[in-house]
Task: structure prediction
Amino acid sequence: MSPTATWLAVVAASALVFGLKLLGHLVPEHWLAKPRVAQTAALVTVALLSALVAVQAATIGRELVADARLPALGVAAVALMLRAPFILVVVLAAATAAGLRALGMS
Amino acid sequence: MTDDARRAALRQSVSVAVATGLYGISFGALSVVAGLSTAQTMALSLLMFSGGSQFAFIGVIGSGGTAGAAIATAGLLGARNGLYGPQVTPLLAANGWRRPLAAQLTIDESTAVATAQADPAAGRLGFWWTGIGVFVMWNLFTLLGAVLGDALGDPRRYGLDAAAAAAFLALVWPRLSGPGAHLSRLVAGGAVAVALALTPFTPAGVPVLLAAAVAIVVGAVAPVRPVEART
Result:
């Protein structure tokens, strides 16, 4: 792809993503007065974040992959169960994956 | 808003901004590796400013996808930010120039911190501090990652990919724990299963979006309960 084509794609995709964000802010607030809409919106957030965990932890491209990220995620889960602060959870996960890879795990 | 609520919101905002910013370094490096220039990489972090969409965009470009595919994938993944809007607007009551600014800052992290606060004023504080904090850190570390680029070598070596997964887990965790979160745990399990099952068959970013279908189906058929108490 030429630099110009890449720039056009960058600007177009950014405009689209911003447009979607702005659309969410322009939705009439009374839609939220319906408990089912609020409940569904909250569940959608849970679903997307959970799916992101799975995709970030266990896939590369279109492949399902089990590598050092999975034990790292396990360590993060234990840290969360022990009510560790967010930053500690993240650092422990990175350190676990980096350590396991230093030992030869993929 | 009590001082405790204010401090808790600020502490979470700073933690999330630092943690998210740190994996911006992996985005910057991966973007340059995918063939984008440093300026294009920075344009994505400044203008698109949505980690999932940005990673998806460079993933498609890097694997030789078309501009159209890259735009569509980023847009599909960015649609969830549109769903966050109705969750944060009642807290923010932003008008005029603040509205597009709030829209640009409406991402996973700012929404999660804002809606996790029990007090609406603390939620508003959490939204702005997290949004602005992540924006600043994300862009600084994107620049650092892009400049270091190849010099850094593989960001996986530093476990930055695992850090990203852990960050999302930490964000969803409060929504899955405690009484009343039974439905949320069911949806989370379903979403993980759907995302992983679809990964081999759909373009990058699509499994995450289709996992939202699980939530919409459950939301449509499950009995409506009073709004769950936030932790």
Observations:
- The first helix of chain B runs from residue 3 to 33.
- The CA atoms of residues 49 and 104 of chain B lie 7 Å apart.
